[in-house]
């Protein structure tokens, strides 16, 4: 349960075996790090140089240790080649704003608008308040642009920022023209989903509200999971799309026993047997499902589902039944 209670759980561990996810913002009191492999999964891909340095930065964190030690295991000539590549900071990949990349790609107007909605709508939604509804939004748009990485990169490459400014205006106006109440928007802000996705999820929850209320009363987290999966099968939610999962060609309904096995902490042998029986796929594809669905998309989707459900039930999220409140965290535990 390291992801659920990182500080208390980690402090009880002497040794911790991790994937490259340890580079993603964790703040553990680590003193020594050993790089045994830099390969990702079973593929030939290696972690990026910037991920390597992010991981290195976890050792000897200020306030916990005075120094850290990094050990890179070299067994082959290729290991040595990788080591020399990683320690050369000139090989660190540049960070580019996705908004800059979209502008630079010179997409059609419709495609450009779609990408801008995906990339910026949740952030703009979070800034929305009664005070700025009905204004021209120019002040807040200029503050966003002026404090952004994409503006620096756009200026560096001599591009015109006006198309982005126009998209921000369009998105703010779409919020204003929508009939969503400020109370709804207050819950939507918490999900990280677009306005469109929030409204589709909200409509589904309202339609199934009586059933969902019964599940809450019974603390029936597996039934909540089932309805979330049904929701995904019936609706096009762009944030929940993933090309790696799409290539598996899975029936999400058939995956319900797999998810239930994961949540119930079935043994690895039992879990793989459930996977094979329900999907007819191998262990490598199970790894894809775990890393993309159980570790990432489904915890996000289910937590969003619960946020909107709690709004519809006039409940605070913290007042949800205990199992339902934390089970989406169990999905992505290491």
What does this entry show, briefly?
With 334 residues, the chain is mostly helical. Helix content is 58%, strand content 2%.
Number of strands: 2
C-alpha Rg (nearest Å): 23 Å
Q: Please mark out the parts with pLDDT under 50 across 5 or more consecutive residues, or reply none.
A: 1-10
| Shape call | globular
Assembly state: single chain
Share in helix: 55-70%
> CA-to-CA gap between the ends?
7 Å
Major beta sheet summary: 2 strands, parallel
The percentage of residues in β strands lies in under 5%
Account of the 3D structure:
This protein has 17 helices and two strands. The protein is an all-alpha fold. Strands 1-2 form a two-stranded parallel ribbon. Helix 2 links the parallel strand 1 (32-35) and strand 2. Helix 4 (98-104) runs antiparallel to helix 5 (109-127) and helix 10 (195-207) crosses helix 16. The longest helix is centred in the last third of the chain and has 30 residues, at 283-312.
């Amino acid at each position: 349960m390291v992801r659920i209670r990182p500080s208390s759980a980690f402090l009880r561990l002497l040794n911790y075996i991790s994937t490259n996810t340890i580079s993603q913002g964790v703040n553990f009191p680590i003193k020594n790090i050993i790089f045994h492999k830099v390969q990702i999964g079973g593929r030939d891909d290696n972690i990026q140089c910037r991920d390597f340095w992010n991981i290195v930065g976890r050792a000897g964190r200020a306030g916990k240790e005075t120094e850290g030690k990094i050990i890179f295991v070299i067994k082959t000539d290729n290991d040595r080649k990788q080591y020399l590549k990683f320690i050369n900071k000139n090989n660190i990949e540049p960070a580019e704003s996705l908004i800059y990349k979209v502008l630079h790609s010179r997409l059609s107007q419709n495609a450009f608008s779609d990408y801008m909605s995906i990339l910026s709508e949740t952030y703009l939604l979070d800034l929305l308040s009664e005070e700025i509804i009905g204004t021209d939004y120019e002040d807040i748009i200029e503050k966003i642009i002026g404090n952004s990485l994409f503006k620096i990169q756009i200026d560096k490459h001599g591009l015109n920022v006006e198309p982005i400014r126009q998209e921000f205006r369009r998105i703010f106006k779409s919020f204003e023209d929508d009939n969503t109440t400020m109370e709804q928007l207050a819950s939507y802000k918490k999900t990280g989903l677009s306005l469109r996705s929030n409204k589709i999820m909200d409509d589904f929850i309202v339609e199934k509200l009586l059933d969902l209320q019964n599940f809450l009363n019974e603390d029936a987290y597996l039934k909540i999971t089932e309805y979330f999966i049904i929701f995904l099968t019936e609706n096009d939610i762009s944030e929940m799309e993933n090309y790696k999962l799409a290539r598996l060609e899975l029936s999400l309904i058939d995956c319900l026993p797999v998810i239930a096995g994961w949540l119930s902490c079935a043994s690895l042998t039992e879990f793989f047997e459930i996977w094979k029986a329900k999907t007819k796929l191998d262990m490598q594809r199970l790894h894809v499902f775990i890393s993309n669905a159980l570790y990432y998309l489904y915890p996000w989707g289910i937590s969003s589902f619960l946020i909107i459900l709690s709004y519809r039930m006039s409940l605070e999220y913290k007042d949800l039944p205990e199992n339902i409140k934390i089970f989406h965290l169990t999905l992505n535990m290491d």
